[in-house]
């Protein structure tokens, strides 16, 4: 009488988390998030000669160089003035791209603490995003001051900076959470993100008005950061018909909102399913 022998391969499984307990654990970790975010921010600039001023100066220098070069090559008529137009696009882009490039490895890089004590692994990419936001707040003040010096239009539209910043944060958090979870399983993710960052910049209408690309708008509009950037420019008079924003700005913003919502909804099942087994793969 023969018996069948079944060989089972190794399968890494863990207890599936539940939504409300996971959200409660993240909320209970808010002190940890604030502490780690503040520490990461100051450690990043501690040994730099001008310290945290780099958080404000870097996007400003990038915007100044780009506006100078492009104003000599191609003359764009924009509202707000072209230098403000570029700065208003470069600032949220720098925050977005810098955050996701750091957050993509946050769970793997945080293995030292994550393997010693339990806390929701979603805390780690959130810390990276909030750490960058410490420097973004004063940069916002510099942007408003620079726009005033360059005689950009100021009015009630300036209040659009609030929803624009909220959209930027949610969009950045969505990408960071999803990419960080994927990087635990696919260690090539950090190289993929680094490789696409530069072409992504050029496809995000940071240096040029959307009306200048003609029919390519039908493709560029689906870039998740375009609506976010245009909302920032709208705060400085970009809503004006003579400005950079093409008809259908609301559609562009809606596309960014859909991206932010979709990524957030995708992040929930990822962390509910794999939060408790991430450490076994670090």
What's the short story on this structure?
This protein has helices at 19-28, 30-45, 53-73, 82-103, 106-109, 111-114, 123-149, 161-185, 189-202, 217-220, 226-238, 249-274.
Descriptive overview:
With 282 residues, the chain is mainly alpha-helical. Helix content is 66%, strand content 0%. Helix 2 packs across helix 7 and helix 3 (53-73) crosses helix 4. Residues 1-12 and 241-247 have low confidence and may be disordered.
Instruction: Write down the domain tally.
Output: 1
Task: Please provide the ordered H/E string of secondary-structure elements.
Answer: HHHHHHHHHHHH
Please state the average pLDDT score.
Answer: 82
Low-confidence stretches: 1-12, 241-247
Rg, rounded, reads 21 Å
How helix-rich are the residues, as a percent range? 55-70%
Structural class: mainly alpha
Work out the number of β strands. 0
Query: In angstroms, what separates the terminal alpha carbons?
Result: 45 Å
Query: Judging from the principal axes of the Cα atoms, what is the shape?
Result: globular
Estimate what percentage of residues fall within beta strands. Answer: under 5%
Number of helices: 12
How many strands, which pairing sense, and closed or not: the largest β-sheet?
none
């Amino acid at each position: 009488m023969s018996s069948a022998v079944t060989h089972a391969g190794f399968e890494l499984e863990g207890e599936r988390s539940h939504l409300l307990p996971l959200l409660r654990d993240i909320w209970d970790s808010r002190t940890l998030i604030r502490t780690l975010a503040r520490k990461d921010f100051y450690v990043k600039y501690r040994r730099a000669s001008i310290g945290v001023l780099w958080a404000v100066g870097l996007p400003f220098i990038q915007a100044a160089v780009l506006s100078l070069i492009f104003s000599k090559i191609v003359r764009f008529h924009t509202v707000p003035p072209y230098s403000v137009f570029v700065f208003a696009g470069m600032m949220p882009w720098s925050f977005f791209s810098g955050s996701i490039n750091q957050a993509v490895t946050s769970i793997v890089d945080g293995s030292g603490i994550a393997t010693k004590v339990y806390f929701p692994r979603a805390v780690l990419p959130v810390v990276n995003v909030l750490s960058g936001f410490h420097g973004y707040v004063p940069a916002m003040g510099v942007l408003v001051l620079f726009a005033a010096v360059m005689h950009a239009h100021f009015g009630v539209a300036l209040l659009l900076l609030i929803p624009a910043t909220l959209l930027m944060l949610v969009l950045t958090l969505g990408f960071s959470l999803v990419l960080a979870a994927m990087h635990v399983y696919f260690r090539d993710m950090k190289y993929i993100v680094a490789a696409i960052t530069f072409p992504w910049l050029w496809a995000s209408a940071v240096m040029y008005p959307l009306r200048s690309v003609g029919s390519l708008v039908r493709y560029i509009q689906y870039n998740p950061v375009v609506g976010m950037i245009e909302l920032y420019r709208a705060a400085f008079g970009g809503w004006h018909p003579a400005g950079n924003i093409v008809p259908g700005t609301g559609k562009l913003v809606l596309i960014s909102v859909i991206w932010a919502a979709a990524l957030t909804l995708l992040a929930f099942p990822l962390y509910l399913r794999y939060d408790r087994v991430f450490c076994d793969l670090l």
